[in-house]
Amino acid sequence: MNDVTKVAIAGLGTVGVGVVKMLHAKSAELGAKLGKKVALVGVCARSSKDRGVDLSGVEFFTDAQEMIRTCAPDIFVELIGGSEGPALEAVTHALQSGIHVVTANKALIAVHGAELARLAETSGAGLRFEAAVAGGIPIIKALQEGLIGNQVIRVAGILNGTCNYILSAMDKTGDEFQVMLGKAQALGYAEADPTFDVDGIDAAHKIAILASCAFGTIPRFDQVDIEGIRGVTSDDINYARELGYRLKLLGIARRNPAGLEQRVHLAMVPEHEPLANVDGVFNAVMLDAEPVGRIMIDGRGAGEGPTASAVVADIADIIRGMNGPSFGRPVQDLEDVDSAPSDERMGAYYIRLSVKDEPGVLAAITHELAHKSVSLDIVLQKARDPGANVPLILVTHDTREGNLREALGAIAKQPSVAETPIVIRIFQS
Fold first, then answer.
1. Strand 225-226 relative to strand 245-256: parallel, antiparallel, unpaired?
2. How far apart are alpha carbons 420 and 408 in whole angstroms?
3. In degrees rounded to 5, what are phi and psi of residue 391?
4. Rounded distance, CA 286 to CA 154, Å?
5. With CB atoms 3.0 to 4.6 Å apart as the test, which of 128, 142, 185, 370 could cross-link to 314 if both were Cys?
6. Distance of CA 99 to the CA centre of its chain
7. What pLDDT, on the 0 to 100 scale, is given for residue 323?
8. Measured distance CA(429)–CA(415) in Å, rounded
9. HSE toward the beta carbon, residue 105, CA cutoff 13 A
10. Which strand (E) or helix (H) includes residue 115?
């Protein structure tokens, strides 16, 4: 690079505007720290409407590839979003042209990360994506640099601020999911269509990326087991409290002899665990590694400032020449690991049943569980009005997930069981 590094940005949403503001505000400081001037030469968006940021002297485009061809930037910043279409096309074009790429697009990296990293290696370009996972939390950098001498055993994190806000607010107010989703939308924490957030897809993109960086595997979003939070009720929140847990949507990845375990789901987290006490829109990532042990990093996982901070940090790393392999090792050395069978997972589970208040019900349920070698740690039966169905709360000891599924399949068919059983995994240290 010359004494001036040319940057072009595609996407002028919240994050894109934040990056422009930061490049303007920190121009002199960045120049002093990097020994090079960072010059914004082009921006791309669907319209040229006023976004409250100074774009004087910056060329405007509506087509990202045209911007790349015209401006010939040293670094292309992709903030369009989506795993296909213009984002993929523009990033591919930039990398094929030997232009460095910085992106906050978790879907793009989770789905196409390996092929894009291969393009980067072939052309000598850098591909950086710190901003794609957990906003301003430098977790990718921690995995690839600070923990490079460690063997990561497990990654677990609160990776979606929208879901964490909803669950935290339900816990504090006692309101149901739909009420708190509406409040999250009103506050701008959730989109009008919240599917990606509340159905766990956003967190699944992120855990696929973290798993790749942690375990040296090809990112495989298609192998992530995904469950969202739509089915959570205030009853489950309250029972969790009573049992000494907090409900969180977690992304978890672990390498074991059976393959790579990647999952997103509700979890009962013990109140003494640091993850249990991360509230609101905050994210947190916990790592178990050898020899460092357990570490956790938390902070704001989204928004203009935190995500823009991560984007600018990646720009700075590229200028400094820190353009190593995108996932911590060359693509040819990334393993394509099979997904670990979910039936073989071992763990403890919370089960909520709605049953008829009549003799023999508990005995019939425990018989089916015992038949599948599922033992119980806690049994709670809650009183209800005469004639009403009764909530029955069960907590298991460690058990094989496939055994539990088979037992609950038989239990659900019993005439005394009024609703489909609710099952939530218990997070274990």
1. unpaired
2. 9
3. -70, 130
4. 8
5. 128
6. 27
7. 83
8. 37
9. 30
10. helix 106-123
DSSP secondary structure string for all residues of 349-361: EEEEEEE-SSTTH
Residue 310, helix vs strand vs coil: helix
Comma-separated ranges of CATH 3.40.50.720 domains in the chain: 4-132
CATH class of 139-300+335-341: alpha beta
Joined tokens for residue 68: 């790349």
Tell how far CA 280 is from the center of its chain: 15
Q: Which residue among the candidates 106, 206, 248, 372 is catalytic per the annotation? A: 206
Q: What is the pLDDT of residues 273-288, one digit of tens each?
A: 999 999 999 999 999 9
Domain with CATH 3.30.360.10 in the chain: 139-300+335-341
- Helix (H) or strand (E) holding 4, with range, is strand 4-10
- Nearest Cα to Cα of residue 428 among 233, 259, 272: 272
Q: Global pTM?
A: 0.94
Token pair 């409040």 is at which residue?
183
Contact 100, 76 (CB under 8 A): yes
Yes or no: say if 338 and 262 are a contact pair by the CB < 8 Å rule.
no
Q: What three-state secondary structure class fits 408?
A: helix
Reported as a single tens digit per residue, the pLDDT across 296-352 is: 999 988 888 889 999 999 999 999 998 889 999 999 999 999 999 999 999 999 999
Strands 259-270 and 225-226 come out as: parallel
- Computed over every residue of the chain, the mean pLDDT equals 93
CATH 3.40.50.970 fits 343-426, yes or no: no
Q: Which amino acid belongs to residue 192?
A: A
Question: ∠ CA 77-82-85 to the nearest 5 degrees?
Answer: 90
Question: Which residue is it, tokens 């976004």?
Answer: 51
User: Which of 180, 174, 272 shows the shortest CA–CA distance to 229?
Assistant: 180
Q: Average pLDDT of 176-200?
A: 92
Strand spans (E) along 145-292: 151-158, 225-226, 245-256, 259-270, 282-290
Q: Are strands 75-78 and 4-10 parallel, antiparallel or unpaired?
A: parallel
Question: To which CATH superfamily is domain 4-132 assigned?
Answer: NAD(P)-binding Rossmann-like Domain (3.40.50.720)
Question: Is the distance from CB of 116 to CB of 185 less than 8 angstroms?
Answer: no
Angle at which helices 27-34 and 14-25 cross, to 10°: 70
Active site residue 33: no
The answer to whether 208 and 219 have CB atoms below 8 angstroms apart is yes
